[in-house]
Amino acid sequence: SNRHKIIEQIVEYIDKNLTSDLSLEALAGMAKFTPIYFHKLFKASTGNTLHRYVEEKRIKKSINLLLSTDMTLTEISYECGFTSQSYFSYAFKRHMKISPREYAKKLLLDYGKNTNI
């Protein structure tokens, strides 16, 4: 239906604009729906609340940056759209059950073990 097509477009927008204002109000406005109606449609379409969906996308991007760059945690947090490094660390730990710094150390240790052939 047309409503689901709009949600698909919003999901695509979110994926490409993680540092933008991705609040319920902003995205509902883009979709020309009320925030409550948009929230219901979004959750029905994705299986996630908007907040959780956006946060998971930002965490996935941060993992990529932890793996592929030497950016600081502060740089990564802003690059992924978090408002502060402390909130980024809090959200990361909530999702991954480990802090970003511990995760990066673990990756380095695992990578080091895998290259000693």
How would you describe this protein?
By secondary structure, the chain is mainly α. It is built from 7 helices and no strands. The chain has helices at residues 2-16, 24-31, 35-46, 50-68, 73-79, 85-96, 100-115. The mean pLDDT is 92.
Brief summary:
With 117 residues, the protein is mainly alpha-helical. It has helices at residues 2-16, 24-31, 35-46, 50-68, 73-79, 85-96, 100-115.
Characteristic terms for this protein:
117 residues, mainly alpha, elongated
How many helices?
A: 7
Low-confidence stretches: none
What is the 3D form? elongated
Any idea what the radius of gyration is? 17 Å
Secondary structure category: mainly alpha
Largest sheet: none
What gap, in angstroms, lies between the N and C termini?
54 Å
What is the number of E strands? 0
Write the SSE topology.
Layout: H1 2-16, H2 24-31, H3 35-46, H4 50-68, H5 73-79, H6 85-96, H7 100-115
Helix pairs in contact: 1-3, 2-3, 5-6
